[in-house]
Amino acid sequence: MIITQKERPASFWIFVLLCFTLGMIAEMIGVNTGYLFGNYTYGNVLGPKLYGVPWLIAVNWFIIIFCAGNIIYRLNEWLYKKLSAQMRPSFIVQVFSFVIDASLLATFFDWVLEPSAIRLGYWQWIPADEIPLFNFACWFIVSAILLTAFRLLKFNKDNQFAIHLFIIQVLFFLILQTFL
After folding, report:
1. Where is 92: in which H helix or E strand?
2. What confidence tier does 160 reach under pLDDT thresholds 50, 70, 90?
3. I need a labelling partner for 54 at 20 to 30 A (CA). Which of 23, 62, 81, 174 fits?
């Protein structure tokens, strides 16, 4: 996705770093305390770990947030072009709407991913692979923080590959759920 990003100003790299860092910290808190997401542990499938969290998970936070942000941003831009200037909501309403919609989309992705990830040994919920609703609430909150940064930072948010990657991943995990 970084290669397909048309422009990569400092604000884009700040966003990448923010996703990686906040995603990793949230997961470390989650794995080591259970305060975020619930009680879970990562298996060895995703590679090397730092404080119980695979580095790949931080990359995953960037991918999901960037993809969800691109999809909702593009949908909003399309919609706002269809509306007259008087009908467009204020900037604050636009940002709030974007953050809510994109956070719901990112959380939806986690919901689709969870069953297959458990079966593939990416992580394990304690007790007995019961995914707590708290997990999805925390996903929504962490996503909202990162998507606020996505929306407010000034960089090109028109990455067609991100949209296709999100669709491909959702379909991939839905297919896995069918056959696992």
Report:
1. helix 91-119
2. very high
3. 174
